[in-house]
Design goal:
single chain; mainly alpha; 11 helices; globular
Amino acid sequence: LVDSGSFARAEELLGKALAQIADDGDPLTNARLWWTQSRLHTLQNEPTLAERYARLALDTLMLTEHTRYVALARQVLAHIYLDEGRADEALEVLEPARATLEASENAYDRGVIRVELARALVEVGRTDEAMPLAETAADELREVSPIDAGRAHDVLAGALRRRGDVDGAIAASQRALTLLPVNDRYRLAVSSSLAEMLREQGRNDEALDVLAEAVRSQA
């Protein structure tokens, strides 16, 4: 429901679930509901509430021996920080989760932690470290999560652009758009960045086409 944008129904179901387990006391169940609630608020552009629930999930899991879930909760919190431009805090939260998720047998776990790490590293100017992470994540996620593979290509585009490789950045942004669905919340930002780079190269007609397609997608 969250993925399809049915936020009201998702919120209703989460509310019922939270009421049902209020007296249960099982920290893993509570934490999983809280980070789902966090994701719901993230997609509704409510970062304060998203951070509150992500922190609740992490603090609860820290009292357990579920190391994978602790790492995933750190990743959720870091994602929120990155969306708010708080890259240093995101890195601080991600680093303790890195070893656990990069060693996972789950390709999705490995890929997404690398996307978030790469995002943070680009923002703090460590592009040499970010690029191989983004490239590896794009390969790992292509089959299991095309949306996140698209995000990885977007992160790679940002790193290449910072290094002055505009042609490479344009190609990476174009690959991202082939993977991101029309209703994805990152698609408009990727399109805007791509159009800006095309304009810098004097390719104004192509830039207008990208923006026009972005407007149609949002509609």
